[in-house]
Amino acid sequence: MDLGNGLGATQNMLDAEIQSFFDSAPPLRSSGDVSEKLEEFVKRNSIASGNGGARRIVCVTSGGTTVPLEKRCVRYIDNFSSGHRGAASTEYFVKAGYAVIFLYRKGTYQPFCRSLPDDPLLECFEFTDESTVQVRHSHSEAVRRAITEHRAAVEEGLLLKLSFTTIFEYLQMLQMISLSLRSVGPHAMFYLAAAVSDFYVPWKSMAEHKIQSSSGPLDMQLNQVPKMLLVLRKDWTPMAFCVSFKLETDKHILLEKADAALKKYKMHMVIANELSIRKEEVVAVTSNERISVHRNKSLGVDDVEDPLIKLLVERHSSYIKSFDP
Ligand code: PMT
C-alpha cells in the first residue's frame, strides 16, 4: 500500500510487522475446515434474501485472546472479557435479519444461552426415574427458548460459530474471514468486540517446555501485537462497514481515545465503553457525533446491545445506500 511520504513509510513498517507476525505464527490447525465453512456460509448468504436484496453479513468477534508463554502451553496471559457483549449482540443481529459469523473465545458466553445457569447440564436437568432425564420446571422456559432460537438461527443458515483461544488463532481467522467477506462489498460489517492482546511472545523465541520456576525470577520480553484494524479496513475488506470498540477504565480519557481510534484506523464507528458500566451504557462515536446508548430495564430494554444494534443496522443501511448509483 503506498500512501506517499511519511505515512507511506509508517504503513510499510506496519505491513512488515504484520507480515512478520503471520510468518512466525504457528499454522492454524483447522484452516482447511474453517475456509470450507466460510466459503459455504458466505456463498449461501450472498444469494438474495427473502426480500430480494443480498443478505447482510456481520462478523462479531467476542471474548479475549490468550498469549501462550510456552509452545507446549502450561501458562498463558489472559484478560477479563466474558464474551457477553459479543453473544448478546449476535442475538440482536440475527433478529435484525443478519447472517452472523461469531468468532469467539472457547469457553465464553454463547448466543441464545445467556439466561442459562453457569452449569446448565447439572442445574437444568433431573432424573424422573433411573433412565429418564427431563428439564427441571424452573428452567424449562429458558432451555426451550435457548434451543428454539439457536436451532432456528443455525437451520436458517444465519449463524456460523468459529472458536479461537490464542492471539495467533484469532488474527489468522480474522484475516480469513475478512478476505472471504470481500465479495459481499458494503453488505459486510465487522463488529470487533473481542479484547485482543496488545503484547505477545513470538513463536520463534517461545520456550518449548514448561518454564522452570527453579531458574529464578522470570525476565521475558513481549513484542507489541501489530494493530490489524487499518489493514483490515484498507486492504483485506475495503468496502465493509467497520465498528471497533474502545475500552478504558478512566472515563476522562475514554471519548478522546475513541476519537483517536476512529481517525487512526479509519473506522466508521467506535463504541466507547467504560469497564465498570459497560453493560449499562456505551457511547457510539462517529466523525461528527457522540451518541449515548443505554439499557433501561424499566422501559423493557434489557440489554444495552438491543438499542446499540438497532443504531448500527440503521447506519449500515445508510452506508449501503451511499453505494447506490
Ligand atoms: O466480553 P465482555 O465481558 O462482555 O466485555 C466487553 C468488552 C468490554 C470486552 C467490549 O465491549 C470491548 O470493549 N472490546 C474491546 C476491548 C479492547 O481490546 O479494547 P482496546 O482499546 O484494547 O482495542 C481497541 C480495538 O482494537 C478493539 O476493537 C480490538 O479488537 C482492536 N485491537 C486491539 C489490540 C490489538 N493488538 N489489535 C486490535 O485489532
TrEMBL record:
Q: Which UniProt keywords apply?
A: Coenzyme A biosynthesis, Ligase
Q: Does the keyword Ligase apply?
A: yes
Q: Which InterPro entries did the record assign?
A: CoaB-like_sf, DNA/pantothenate-metab_flavo_C
Q: Which GO terms describe its biological process?
A: coenzyme A biosynthetic process
Q: Which residues form a coiled coil?
A: none
Task: Name the source's superkingdom.
Answer: Eukaryota
Give, as in the UniProt entry, the pathway in which the protein acts: Cofactor biosynthesis; coenzyme A biosynthesis; CoA from (R)-pantothenate: step 2/5
| Stretches assigned to the DNA/pantothenate metabolism flavoprotein C-terminal domain | 175-295
Q: Which Gene3D superfamilies match?
A: CoaB-like
Q: Which family does it belong to?
A: Belongs to the PPC synthetase family.
* Name used for this protein in its record: Phosphopantothenate--cysteine ligase 2 isoform X1
Lineage, highest ranks first: Eukaryota, Viridiplantae, Streptophyta, Embryophyta, Tracheophyta
